[in-house]
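User: I'm writing a tutorial on reading structure tokens. Could you give me a worked example: one chain, its sequence, then its tokens, then a sentence or two explaining what the tokens reveal?
Assistant: Sure. Here is the example chain.
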Amino acid sequence: MNYVDAALAPMRKTGQIKLHKAEAFAGMRKAGQLVAECLDMLVPEVRPGVPTERIDRLVHEFAMDHGALPATLMYRGYRKSTCTSINHVVCHGIPSDKPMKEGDIVNIDVTLILDGWHGDSSRMYPVGEIPRRAERLIDVTYDAMMRGIAVIRPGATTGDIGAAIQSFVEAQHMSVVRDFCGHGLGRLFHDEPNIVHVGRAGEGTVLRPGMFFTVEPMINLGRPHVKVLSDGWTAVTRDRSLSAQFEHTVGVTDTGVEIFTLSPKGLDKPPYAAKA
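And here are its predicted structure tokens:
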């Protein structure tokens, strides 16, 4: 894999990894914090009886009010400002007028473009009281993401990230989805490198300062296999087991890693009511 100075690279995927400088880090901090504030705003809105279409509308209004654009809106024909993935939906769930119900778990994935920079993050939200197995799945998924992020530093590899996530998750008798992965981003929504959430330590792409990408493991209570429904977007577990996901946008620094999408209110994972 080749690396290139992001300031000199074209605004498209070239198969090269873009390395960013201080001004880009500043832009990503602002975009990441805006996304985190948006996800914080949604905490009291996720409750039984609320349709995910309302969540989508709130995200769109938040973006407009803050001079940003939802990156998913009309991206490859997608018509919503967010993705809302409930229970056995792994990712790319399309908001609808169907209300959420007590005991559901929902992943809300938001990407906002602010001053040309993409901030991308998702969190799990419990809908009312949820089963213990769902709570445990959410805890394991969050911890898996943070274990993957913890190994990021110059000289580490993408395989180190995948290995940290996979070894932890499988020890909990859960499975890591292979069909979807994290991705580079910055001024592009999706760029190099791919961040696969399984792997072997020491293998894959070497991390260098200035790289931006997401870490976003999708973890299933059952087997890892998924299928995409006829709408072309919604991915579900084949065995209909519960699935969960968390996502942060990060940058590789000279000494380690910076997380751009941390919640300013400390609401990075449930239970949110205890922290709000």
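What the tokens reveal: The longest helix spans residues 22-41. The longest strand covers residues 105-114.
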